[in-house]
From TrEMBL:
InterPro entries: CLS_N. It is a multi-pass membrane protein. Residues 1-23 form the signal peptide. Keywords: Cell membrane, Membrane, Signal, Transmembrane, Transmembrane helix. Residues 42-84 form the Cardiolipin synthase N-terminal domain. It comes from Adineta ricciae. One of its GO terms (cellular component) is plasma membrane. The keyword Signal applies. This is Cardiolipin synthase N-terminal domain-containing protein. It holds the Pfam family PLDc_N. The keyword Transmembrane applies.
Amino acid sequence: MSLLMKSTPILVLLLALVNCVAADYYYVGPTVGGIIGLIILILDIIAAVEILRSGKPLAEKLLWILFIVLCPLIGLIVYIFFGRPRSGGL
């Protein structure tokens, strides 16, 4: 019993250090996710401006923008491959 009482402060200190290290380790995820989210947001805004400036009918413009707003990453990828006008040559 006395051994447990003597080692309790050491255990508490070790657990506190593990908690601090774990907090620092997991802090990287939200930062990287935030940067990636910001990049996707900027690309979505560029795509929306491109859609609004295109010569597509109004209904098609609204559908593309709605698709990009509701599904940002998937909508952007689908718009890049299928929604943009094709160039004449390879």
